[in-house]
Structure formats: structure tokens, C-alpha cells
Transporter (Candidatus Methanofastidiosum methylothiophilum), 439 residues
Amino acid sequence: MERETWGSKTGFWLAAAGSAIGLGNIWRFPYLTGANGGAAFVLVYLLLVFTIGVSVMLAEFVIGRSTNLNPVGAFAKLKGGAWPIVGWMGVAAGFIILSYYSVIGGWTIKYIISSFTGLISPTTDTTSYFLGFIGNGPQTILFHALFMAATIYVVYRGVGKGIEGWCKILMPALFLLLLILIVRAVTLPGAGAGISFYLNPDFSKITSKTLLAALGQAFFSLSLGMGAMITYGSYISKKVSLPQSAATVTFLDTAIAFLAGFVIFPTVFAFGIQPGAGPGLTFITLPSVFAMMPGGQIWSALFFLLLFIAALTSAISLLEVVVAYVTDAQGWPRHKAALVIGAAIFLLGIPSALSNGAVPINVFGMGFLDAMDFLASNILLPLGGIFIALFAGWIIKDIAKKETTSEGPFPLEKVWMWICRIVAPLAILIIFLGGLGLF
Ligand code: PFF
């Protein structure tokens, strides 16, 4: 069967941006910025994204398009030996990340509904509300199932009609919602303090911890290190410029994260809340802020709808990595692969759904969800990133040159090559070891 390709360059860009833009941008980036001192963290993050992040993304696109295969098949075709293990790690990471990502995706659905049914009220204690919900096993499993069902539906429909078609509608919707929320946030009385926290850097806040947090966030946010961009790259037609695509997707992802900060910080400061509240910033702090605003129910529903859309277009790419592998390698039809693998990922997500208060399930001294996140984000993604960069920089040099210049000269090719060869692997190694507490 002929392999599907994206219908247009814009369609591909929106799908790839849909993968990158997710809970990482709207939930994780603002709370990390808040917890790491504000503007200085943002600057370090930007620097890392536009050197290492964009380079690894280009490497993934090259590996994907030059083979038109899933991550395992791509490494096998280009070099073989032990390299397909990198692809395997990616497929495993996709499976694992989606299992808990979908649980949090389910929380966003619950919060859209709850915005109208009691969450947004001056008498609601949003901390107990949140803890009560995530500790309710049957409810969290139900919403996890709903989120997985939506993800499976889109992937089941295929690359063009499903992924590209939906991202073309959902990404502009997300952008519009974000703009509306920014206007609301920056016009709140007292918003200025939030904007200055976000934009005035205090360089004494930059520590090695900030650096590690920023680099880890860059990988997670850009969907790098596990072959998601190899898979999406495998559907790109030969007419599209890969350097231009990597630059565009990186820019869009970063712009949305940066803009999300203009919703969160002005709002949080306007209502005198601490920006360093951590992961609860979105699900606990914001609803209590919305409750104090006129029309709070609507603002809250819009915000969680935005978060849901962002999460869905990322979840699709996570499922697609595994589905692409099974359809390429095992010859399964897409429909069967999406359903069977989606169901298996749903099952693996059940302990993550239950581990936040319903049933104590601990692995390595952490709750199950946190342990899965640790395994994927702190071990599999950084390791994958190192090998992908090394592979592009040392093993497939000629192919890399051909793929990046097919649409005209690529003036930064040498810089890109050296980042792949030395800078990126070294920097990622540092996060990896730092993340494991080895130095
Ligand atoms: N980039 C997504 C986010 O920021 O939420 C998460 C993600 C998606 C990570 C796809 C990895 C991936 F392959």
C-alpha cells in the first residue's frame, strides 16, 4: 500500500506543532518558570531551544523523511546493527508517556465540565476539589478512557483525514482561545507585577538546577528524543524544506509556551497568589482565580478547553509513533493497530489514574504516574536525544546534507552538524546524569 503523506506543507506544520504544543507548554512551562524564578529561566530556555532543540528536531525530520519509515525501521534501514534499539526505546517511550499523559488529558475534560458544576464558586476550596477528584478511582479512569477514545478516533482515521484534518481545525482554535485569554489576563487590575516577574530577568537566579530544568523542558515540549518527529517526518513530501520546517515548528511551540505565560502570571499576580506553587498552578490556583472573576465559569471552561485541545494533538502523535511501527513492521491495518494499541495503552494508564490518592501504587518510592514520567522523560527521552543527534552528525552525514539542501542552500548546515556531533550530545548527557542525581 502507498504510504500516506501530508496533504500540504501547512498541514504538516500544524500537525507537528500540534504534537509539540501540549500540556508541556500550557501547564508545565509556566509552573517551571514560576518555580525557577521567572524571566531568567525563560531566557535560558529560549537559548537551549534555539540551539539544541531545533537541531535535534531537524535531525529527526531527516531520519524520518529519508526512509519514510517508523523510528525502528528508519534506523534499521539507514545503518542497522544496534541502532534500531534507539527506535525501540522511542516506541516504548511513546507507549509509556501516552499512558499517563492521557490520565492528565482526562483531568482537563473533567475540568471543562466542572467549570459549570461547582468548581468555580467563591465557596469552593480548589485544593480539596482537585485532590478529591484525582483520588476518585472510577472517575479518573472514566475520563482517561474518554481522552484515549478521542485520541484513538483521530489516529484511526489516518494521517491526512485524521491527524492533519483535525490539527488544521484545532490549532487555530487553540491560538484564538489563547489570544482571548491573554487579553483578559493582561487587562486585570494588578496584572503588571506578573508581567514584570515574567519579563525582567534576575541573573542570580540561574543555577545548574535551572539549566537542567530548562533543557529537560525543551525536549519534552518539542516532542524530541523518542521519534515522534521521525514518524511525522516520514510523511513529509520531498518538496518541503526540512530546515525551514524545523525552524517553524520550534518557533510555534516556543511562541505558544511564551504566550501561555501571559495568561498565567498576570492572573496569578493580580490575585496575589504565589507563582512558585508547582504542578498545582494550573488545576488548583487558576480555578480559584477564575472564581474571583466576573464570568469566571466561562473563562475557566475556555481555559480547560484550550488545555484539552493542546493535549489531544500531542497525544495523537504519541499514539501514531506506536501505530506507525506496528503497521510498517507487522503489516497490521491502521484501524486494527489504533484500536488494539490504544486499548493496551489505556490499560497501562489505569495504575497511573489510580495512583494519585485512590490506591497507593508506588514504584521506586514514587507514585505510579510520577514513576512513569520519570522513566520516560528523565531516562528514555534524553538517551534517545543523544543517539539521534550522534546518528545525524556522524553516521548519516551525506544523507543529512542531501535532505537539508534538497530545497536550496542551507547556510547553517555546518553549525547544525557540529551541534549534532558535539554540543547536543554533551549537553544532553549532562541533563541525563544530573537528572539521575549522579553528579
Ligand atoms: N510535546 C508535548 C507537550 O509539550 O505536552 C508532549 C510530548 C508529545 C512529548 C509527543 C513527546 C512526544 F513525542
